[in-house]
Amino acid sequence: MSEEAVDTHAPALSKAQRPQAASILHSSTLRLPQWTYFHLRLFTLSTESPAHDAVTARKNLNTAMMRYLGIIGSSISIDILKLDNLDLWVRVPRESGGAFHEAVSAWIGQGDMKYLVKAKDDWLVKLSDSNGQDMF
Amino acid sequence: MFLSQSQTIRSSPCYFTHLELPTEIDPKNVSKRRKPFSSISSNAACHTVDMILPHELWEVVKSSITPESLQTEYHKVTMTLLEVISGDFFNYYIKTGNIFLLSEGRPHIDNRFSLKDGILRLELDKPTYERCGLTGRAIPSLGRKHIKSRYVIELNLRLAQMVRGKKGFDRIVWAFTRVLNEPVKWLFYDFHRGQKSRGEGTTCPIEHQNSVLCECILSIQNIPNAVVPIAKSSGAMKDQDYQEQLLEWLGLLSMDSPRVQTTDKVDKYICRYEVPCMSTQDAEDKAAPQQLVHVQVQGLMMSRSIISLFLQLRDSQKDYWFSLSAKSFEGNAYSILCTQGRETLVWELD
């Protein structure tokens, strides 16, 4: 409805309104994102690189949550968005983001494995582990 | 959820705008106060630019999107602040030319310096600011409220009184000799590169500084069988959940996640992500997967280059959609999506 209103007003605009003016149809502010995104990297002290596939990663994260919050921790949904060798991108509900961060930081797996939190953000397009600092 | 409310830190908001751009935009005379160009030019420099476009559109524009055509050559250089405001470099680049300089350092944490349009901006912590002896203003920091812990000093070096021997300038020289005297790593971009010739046989001052010439890196990734959930009706764009899901989908494409492809048959235990779906009609439309291309540019990208990149994509073929996202050095990001009907969606993240 509102875009029709904008259209009908368009010809009647004064000269001050430049022809290049973009007409805004709708704008809103998103304040409560649904998810929190993490970029994790598996770090290990052993010389051989550990097996790291989606199922192992999910199991590791599940163990971490279980150790930190017990049976409740295992109920927090974790979605693995991408897995690239030792790098892992996951999303968790925003309310559980803090709990997940702490659980993952505290976890140490077999063979002295642990996850490093490289980046954390509420918006996936903003997730960046160095903010361009590696360019210098 | 399972921890106290204090654990849930308020997240930074995302500003979404749905707008219609005029059919013709003069590339030489772009209004930088209007969206989406205002969101591009509010971030002077970006380190990553992601473009997602259908394969057909990429075939059309790929010859014109190259590191050479983007004019993104920049220098890496190590200099002290005193070297910036003295000698040939100062006269050639700051007094007469137009350059952009950005120093290493995390925003809100480290001391960082930048130079744009002749204005040198120093972002300092309190102890350094107090030793400097230059006037600045306090800026909000990430820590406690009402405590001034970070300051900004802005110096317009193009003013006529900014020459050696004048009192104000000598104070800057004093601060840069006694306090801020350590070598800093910089990124350097010359807006007048190639335009101004200094005569045969002479070199630009930047080449005396042991600088390294760099070029933006373009990487191209094919995404076959991707489901495109862009709704045709503008009514759908008013749904806040849909706005968020579309942004997430763009993010997944930018990180080359396999979850957006129809061929991805991952178990629900590992990932429950589903491409957003608005109505039954849209569901029918999206049944046919498209072949997409993800083009990533990494390097120092000035807002001017991004605007020309955006206009180039927009004007090349009107029948295809495309999206452009960028992340700036300040930690901000924005995404712009142009639909087939040339409606534009803008997400701004601070």
From TrEMBL, chain A:
Alphabetical GO biological process terms? intronic box C/D snoRNA processing; nuclear-transcribed mRNA catabolic process, RNase MRP-dependent; tRNA processing
Q: Name one Pfam family in it.
A: Pop8
Q: What are the GO cellular component annotations?
A: nucleolar ribonuclease P complex; ribonuclease MRP complex
A GO molecular function term, named singly, is:
ribonuclease MRP activity
InterPro entries found in the cross-reference section: Pop8, Pop8-like_dom
Superkingdom is Eukaryota
Q: Show where the Ribonucleases P/MRP subunit Pop8-like domain sits.
A: 34-107
The identity of this protein, by name, is Ribonucleases P/MRP subunit Pop8-like domain-containing protein
Automatic annotation (TrEMBL), chain B:
Signal peptide per UniProt:
none
Identification of the protein by name: Uncharacterized protein
Organism field: Microthyrium microscopicum
Q: Offer an example of a GO molecular function term for this protein.
A: ribonuclease MRP activity
Stored PANTHER family: RIBONUCLEASE P PROTEIN SUBUNIT P40
> What Pfam families does the annotation carry?
Ribonuc_P_40 (PF08584)
UniProt lineage: Eukaryota, Fungi, Dikarya, Ascomycota, Pezizomycotina
Quote a single Gene Ontology cellular component term. ribonuclease MRP complex
Q: Which GO terms describe its biological process?
A: endonucleolytic cleavage in ITS1 to separate SSU-rRNA from 5.8S rRNA and LSU-rRNA from tricistronic rRNA transcript (SSU-rRNA, 5.8S rRNA, LSU-rRNA); tRNA 5'-leader removal
